[in-house]
Amino acid sequence: MPMYVVGHKIPDSDSICGAIALAYLKNQIGEEAVAARLGELSPETAFILERFGFEAPEYKTSYAGEQVYIVDHSELTQAPDDIAKATIVGIVDHHKLGDLTTDTPLECWIRPVGCSNTVIKMMYDFYQVAIPKNIAGIMMCAILSDTVIFKSPTCTTADIRCVEALAEIAGIEDYKALGMEMFKVKSAVEGTPARDLVMRDFKDFNMNGNLVGIGQLEVIDLSVFDAIKAELEADIKALKVEGNRHSVLLLLTDIMKEGSELLVVSDDAELINRAYGKTPVDGKVWLDGVLSRKKQVVPQLQAAFA
C-alpha cells in the first residue's frame, strides 16, 4: 500500500511542489509513494508546474485507512478532515510544531528555514539521491515563493544555497527573474471573485480555543486592490460568520515596499493592538516590514490570545 504525500488545505506552491518532490524521493529509496493535494492549484502553482512540465498531483480529500506523509504543516485544522483515521508516517515542515498527534512512531524533518522544499533538498542530500532537472525547478520556485525571493525574514542561508544548487540542476541562469515572473502571476487579480482571492492562500489556526483564519495575497503593487478592497473586506466578514471564526485577517503584502496592509474582522476590538501595537482604522492597518505570516503574524497573534 503506497503512502500519500500531501500538504495542507488550500495548498500553496510549497505544499504542492513539496508533495511531488518528496513522493519522487520516497519512490527512489524503495518506499512507494503518491503525491496528492487537498485543493485546487493557485495561479502561481499552476504556472510553476506548467513551466516544468508537471500535471497537478492527485486530488484526494479522504485518507481513512491510508498511510500519509504530511508536508508543509503539522496543524489539525490544515490536515485532511479524516486524518485521525489515517496513519501519519512522517512530517516535513518549516513552521511551528502544531497539534497533530500519532499513535505510532513517525519520521520528522522539521527545520527553521524559509520553505519545506529546502528541508526536502536536505533529505535528497541525506539519501544521496540525484534530483531530476524538472523537480529541481519546481523545488527552486517553491523556495523563491515562500521566501519572497529572499526578502522574507524567514529566509536563511540554507534557503539561498538550496536555490542556487537547484537552479544549477534545473539549468536556470536568472532565478530571480523567474521569481518575479511568478509574482507577476500572483499580482494578476483583475476579474477574480473576492472569495477566490481571500481563499487563495488561507489557513485556519486554533489559538487558545479560538478559530482564527489568516489569508495572504502577495503582489508587486498594492494598487491592484484599489477597485476591489471593499469586496475583500465584505468577504472576510462573511467568512468569519460562515466558519464561526473568532477573527479573520487578510494580509495584502507589497513585496516591493516590503510591508503589508492588514484587513481584519474580530470579536476582540483590542486584538490587533495587543498583537502588533497598532490600532486598525476602519478595519485596516499598515504593518511596515511585515512579509511573513509564519514569523511576523501568527506568533504575535497567538501571544495576544494567551
TrEMBL record:
Pfam families (alphabetical): DHH (PF01368), DHHA2 (PF02833)
EC numbers for this chain: 3.6.1.1
Required cofactor(s): Mn(2+)
Catalyzed reaction equations: diphosphate + H2O = 2 phosphate + H(+)
Enzyme class: hydrolase
Molecular functions (GO terms): inorganic diphosphate phosphatase activity; metal ion binding
One Gene Ontology CC term in the entry: cytoplasm
InterPro entries: DDH_dom, DHH_sf, DHHA2, DHHA2_dom_sf
Keyword list, A-Z: Hydrolase, Manganese, Metal-binding
Keyword Hydrolase found: yes
Domain DHHA2: start-end pairs: 179-305
Protein name: inorganic diphosphatase
Organism: Shewanella oneidensis (strain ATCC 700550 / JCM 31522 / CIP 106686 / LMG 19005 / NCIMB 14063 / MR-1)
